[in-house]
Amino acid sequence: MNSPSRVAMPWFESGRISLALWGAGAILGLVAAGFSLFTAKGTATSSVPAEYIAVVNQRPLYVSDYLDALKTQFNVTIENATLEQRRKVLDEMIREELFVQRGLELDEPGTDPDVRNALVAAVQAQITVDATSQIPNEAELTAFYRDHVERYSSIGYLTAADLLAAPDVAGGAAEALLTRAAAALRAGQPLAAVKAQFGLEESSDSSGEQVYFAAKLHLGDRLFAAAAPLAAGEVQGPIMAEDGRFHLLYMIANHPPQPRSFAMARNEVYGDYRQDLLDRIRDREFKYLKDKADIRFNRAYQP
Amino acid sequence: MRGSTPRVLLLLIVGVAAAWGVRQAWRAHMEQRLLETWPETAARDPALLRFATSRAVPALNEHCAACHGAGMHGNQAHGAPDLTDKEWLFGEGRVVDIEQTINHGIRSGDHRDEDLASMPAFLRAEPYPRYHLASLSRADVNDLAAFILRLNGHEPADSPAASRGAALFNKALCYDCHTESAQGDPSIGAPSLLPHAWLFGGNRQALVDVISYGRAGICPAWEGRLAPVTIRAIAIYLHSRSK
User: Which helix (H) or strand (E) element contains residue B58?
Assistant: First the structure.
């Protein structure tokens, strides 16, 4: 009886193929896991990662901070720094780190007002940094500009004659004199002629071209409010001003603030948009922290 | 033939895995080298520069092109500087200077950002929020613009407005940031007023606008958002393009 001859199967057709595939998969998995494990951020190893210049009690000192410190302190790159300079900067960084760590152990943030202020500023700055890395797109900036268009006006400027009666003419007489002078100006008489005819003085503070805020400062609130709407050639007054005297305003030229285009104001819009965002984020952060905090009040002092 | 398929598949898997492993190992090695080689030295190493370029360009396109443009040539309308010319607003253009600006930003709020000064708005009632500066009149602003144009050869040498502007340059404390020779001060980001690449345009109207309404550009801080090796790569790449 002939026994069936055993035909040798190639290895890749036998059950060994699945074993080989499993093996290859396992090795791949191990390689990937090992790579991730030993390169992940924060991995504790005895070696110092390339981006750190040192690790002090598991706290890293960054190479970038070291290079900045060299530059700030000695204005040198590491290539040009002497050994002494490099040692000095590194020693100072290690010293700072050790004292910070010791300060935390001693609970300095809990007791020292300067440390607490610095911490508050640091946290707020961190929020700022997060917000500034979100670069707004043009649509967001344009929408912000439209909502606050009054902020981005040009500076208004005017040239006005602020006329007063001579110092020896006061009260009702001054008012009557200025009323007649106003009529003459409205009738089209030149300013110089009217001044001469009625013996008027012109306030030197408010003469010449002035931007609006300066005109307001020089004229005072009441006179500026009367002057701002006037067009060139128009007259307003007599008006009793804050100085207790009657004034007559004659507008020579007036260029009120005009809206500036988005393109012109973009730099300011960006700054304001960012500030507005920061204010909102800070408020939100405070609200979030307050909501999740356990705050209990002493009834005797609770406002 | 039927039997060779699994073998080919297996070899393919092993080959791809090996190639991936080699590539990862090479990348890790180059990243390590890029960080461990001193910055200015790394910038002179052709292999590291090639690696830095391959790492920097995608990051620049993703994070910086929105302001500085696709080719990093800047955008005057936004006041975003050209990063390919030889002029640097902050620092001296060394790799370490560029890296510091990328790490901490400009007016970013980061505790080590570049934020010592900004351009006052001289037509405003309070031109500068940090300390008192006197406002200027429109005539003063025009005179200052004329003076700067004269420095750049666009205003006659005997221009009375430019001469008044020259006196104002000292009186209004412009020299405090831009220096007495108007060469600027890169330690605080005050640009040169001599012939150079203007950040917001160098014509009369642009100058009048800048003096009147001020300027304060912003660049985010990228430390913690981009890997240190990416920041080093960008600094080296930009340094190499800054010619």
Answer: helix B46-63
